């Protein structure tokens, strides 16, 4: 969510330039480090979002919806595996 948010913010307020692609990636990685949620492949999210020109609705579908599905599946599998 953090890196996707950075990408949308940069698309909306900064624009897509070579320097802004690098800056957005750096900001996303820095935010993940600060929040201790580092996921190296997520560093590419701002670049992909910026190059495809995504809007704020992209944060809801597929990013937030996908995160909810992944968490729900993890919860379900955990309950099934540890069912005793």
Could you explain the architecture of this structure?
The protein has 84 residues and is mainly alpha-helical. It has one domain. The protein is built from four helices and no strands.
Describe, in short, the structure shown.
The protein has about 80 residues and is mainly alpha-helical.
Compile the SSE list and pairings:
Elements: H1 2-14, H2 18-34, H3 45-52, H4 57-81
Helix pairs in contact: 1-2, 1-3, 2-3
Q: Which parts are unreliable, with pLDDT below 50 for 5 consecutive residues or more? A: none
What level of helicity do the residues show?
A: over 70%
Distance from N terminus to C terminus (CA atoms, Å) equals: 34 Å
How many beta-strand segments?
A: 0
Mean pLDDT: 95
The ordered H/E elements are HHHH
Shape: elongated
Question: Can you give keywords for this protein?
Answer:
about 80 residues, mainly alpha, 4 helices, about 75% helix, elongated
